[in-house]
DNA sequence: TCCTTATGCTAACGGTCGTAAGTTTACTTC
DNA sequence: GAAGTAAACTTACGACCGTTAGCATAAGGA
């Protein structure tokens, strides 16, 4: 838990118009602390300031609150997840089946590559902690919507192409996402568990009601 | 966040041999704080002591650490979940199909009735926080095993009776639990989301590979 | 060159936390 | 009634936290 007890990196002051750059550095430092310590409680005003190499009150130029930093971290993480899903879709060919697997595996890969971030994104330390802070409920309400839509669309393509059968495409999409989330979250939480090797593909195939090839 | 700023409930001291009763009171108070504030960070040595009506250091008679309280809370929660699953199984008849649904719905009901507890049980604030504390990794390793076995057995009965088909019963059981966990966890985290009404039965039926009746 | 102003810092306050050391209270036994 | 001891308390220390108020410094246009 010791974070540079006395680390004066002699940080150069930003140029006149580039003060906002410090905001990115703050968020990046917060993400670093989260990834290293694995505990969102490690993201504190002072710890972030230490990591960046600035004085703690200097953060108030860029964030009104400490929860505002957390919100920025989570927003950035969701943007990264969305970008990763889009990249996977762009790299895939036109087969709806392969596109569905691509986006699902990209989702799972994000959670596996950044378990602490995933845990924080969906851990729900929000509703309680943001009482009386600058973070409003609407800031956090629609955070994962775009990512879920990408998944829903990919499943819809499969249904349209006749590769997937199901009585209710929307409910199936929700179920598929819930299954992915269960796997992703549990993988992010437990150190090492003997998962069946093909557990991901099994869940995707089953929940998407994919027909045998 | 104000917890009895000065609440002297004039707690009577326990009788000579019943000092261990305070331990139960401490755990109960910790659970109360968790359920009310919804944040495991609300379980602190001093807040628990205030709630019980004792001085903070008095806790050290019964717990070596603050993490030890958290461990006790989680252990108790897992015991409650297990008891709830067994109760549901005992109340069910002999039809394997109905027994499977009974245990699955009991699982989901626990998460819905005690969302903060569920979040804490599976939230994984463990691996990081127990560094250098009295809580060892083995204390937390096999916490949910019994509950998962109850689920696995219920699915196994369905397979044996021919009500469920699947190529790998163990993998299917894991997948079923992951699906339940995804739904339970997400329900415990989000305030209100328009879930498809029959989402639970859909996931259970699909992941268990239940045959049409 | 000087003045404005964005940028970041120092100092400080009040609060909470975990924990150690030593002490008081009251039950039980003799 | 005396003694022993379990049960719980008081006091205190050091650390970290979020936040406020005011100050220094340097960039860049006039």
TrEMBL record, chains A, B:
Keyword Transferase among record annotations: no
Gene3D superfamilies: Tetracycline Repressor, domain 2
Domain spans labelled HTH tetR-type: 20-81
PROSITE patterns referenced in this protein's UniProt entry, alphabetically: HTH_TETR_2 (PS50977)
GO terms of molecular function: DNA-binding transcription factor activity; transcription cis-regulatory region binding
DNA-binding region(s), chain positions: 44-63
Pfam families: TetR_C_33, TetR_N
Keywords: DNA-binding, Transcription, Transcription regulation
Protein name from the UniProt record: TetR family transcriptional regulator
Organism: Actinophytocola xanthii
